[in-house]
Each structure stands twice: as structure tokens, then as C-alpha cells.
Amino acid sequence: MANIAFIGLGNMGGPMAVNLVKAGHQVCVFDLSEQAVAHVVEQGASTQGNAIDCVQGAEFIISMLPAGKHVDGVYLNAESGLINHIAKGAMVIDSSTIDAATSKKVAAALAQKGIDFVDAPVSGGVGGAVAGTLSFMVGGSEAEFTKVKPILDNMGKNIFHAGAHGAGQIAKTCNNMLLSVLMVGTSEALQLGLANGLDAKVLSNIMSKSSGSNWTLDLYNPCPDVMENVPSSNDYQGGFMVDLMAKDLGLAMDASVGSQSSTPMGALARSLYAMHAAAGNGSKDFSSIFNLFNHSNNK
Hints:
There is one protein chain. The protein is α/β, with parallel strands linked by helices. The chain has helices at residues 13-22, 34-42, 51-55, 68-76, 100-111, 125-131, 142-152, 167-195, 200-208, 215-218, 242-259, 264-281, and strands at 3-7, 26-30, 46-47, 60-63, 91-94, 116-119, 122-123, 134-139, 156-163. 47% of the residues lie in helices and 13% in strands. Strands 3-2-1-4-5-6 form a six-stranded parallel sheet, sandwiched between helices. Strands 7-8-9 form a three-stranded mixed sheet. Helix 1 (13-22) packs parallel to helix 2 and helix 11 (242-259) runs antiparallel to helix 12. The protein starts with a strand and ends in an 18-residue tail after the last helix.
């Protein structure tokens, strides 16, 4: 079993750390939230008063942080960066969803110190984090992927080697851009049907058995009361927040500009989610975009 430091115990990081403990690893955790730390410690993890002490002697350091600036700061800050405290030969696994450029920057800086790095963002939501069924999209060398896969297997079901450093972030960005476009299209189609007198359950069943079938329709239906145990039937609580989808679409547009790619559907989805968030829906699940197309709002 491995000696692991886990930095960042939010809605995703906390359950991921718990699964590592359940797998028998020695896990030292750190987060600015004492409550988040206490919850994981109750499950068998240890903790230290700061991240620097937590990474001492760790073979693997896993981070799950909000944005690129946090990842850059945690590892590379001139005064408090972990880069000067992680053992040579250790492996850093960053599962934050950030821009590929920051992942590459951190990877290069750590490499100069003899520290391995992979970017390994996840898909699967809080439910997947708790169940240990996440998908990991890994950016790094073949040797680095081989080294981290046994650890990631404790937290996920599908572990993909996307390519070199930064490739995991690009894969995650592409996936979430497509997800947003599918959710917008599904919501628009369902609202069109409702406005013309169709029953949402009937229309959903028709489309799911036809060429319109997709994940957002079949497994995460955005129309309330069509499907049980999804956010739309719980006042859009839980799940993946609108604010997070808006953030990921911002990353997608940055990647699009940087590579001179044409992403008109992604750009439109970003505008729609920004509009939805600005109306006070940022903390709701991203399927709540369904309400943006409510025909009664347009009369």
C-alpha cells in the first residue's frame, strides 16, 4: 500500500480520499476547511496542520483544487509551494479541472526537481466519487500513466491515457463542452414539445428510442418528474453546478482561441450558461438550463 497525501477535500476530493483509505493506503489529508478534514479523518485518514507537513515522505500527492491559480500556487509559490518539500521520485496527480497550460507549467517545474506529474481530471460527479466509479483522463508519459493507474483504480472505473501532459485537461474540456451542448439541445427540444402539447415523459421515451437519444436525455433528464433520482426532480439541487459548467466552458473557449479551433456551439452554450448563472441559478444543477427555454417566460 502507498503513502499518499491528498490536498483539497471538497465535494469530489473528500469522497476520493475516503476511497483511498478504504483501499488500505496511508492517507494524510489537508484542506482549509477543518470540517472537511475531520470527516475524512473519521474514516481513517491522518492530517497535519499544513500541506507542507502533509506531503513529507509521501509517494503520491493528489490535489483536487478549484482553479489553475490554486494549483500553480500550491505547487509553485515561491514561499509556500510544495515543490520544495515533495520527495524526489514522488508522483503528483492533479485531478483539478484547469487549463492545460498550467498543467504543463507545473509538470515542467516539478520535472526539474525530479518529481513526476500527471494531470488527471475526472468525470462522474459526486455520485461517482462516492461510489469509486469515476472516469479519469490522464495526461503524462506512458511510464507515468503506468505508475498512477493502480492508485486511480481505487477511485475510478474508467482510467484513460489521453496523451502527454495537458492532454487530460483538454479531454475533460472537450467532454464537458459536448455535455453542455447536449443538455442545451435536449432542454430546447423538450420545451418545444411541451409548448405544442406533448407529454414530457412520452416525448422523452420517443426520443430516447430514436436518433435523438443521448446521455442527458436518457440518464439525466432535465425536465422535472420525468425521471427519478436526478436533480431536475429535486428542484435542481445536487449534481454539477451551473457555475462549474460555466467555468469549464470558459476553459473550452480559452483552448479554442489558443488552438484557433472553431467552436460555435460551445460558444453559444457558454453564453447561455452565463446568462442562466447571472439570473441567480449558479448553485443549481446544470440541467436547470431547461428553465431558460420555458415558453411561458417568452410570452
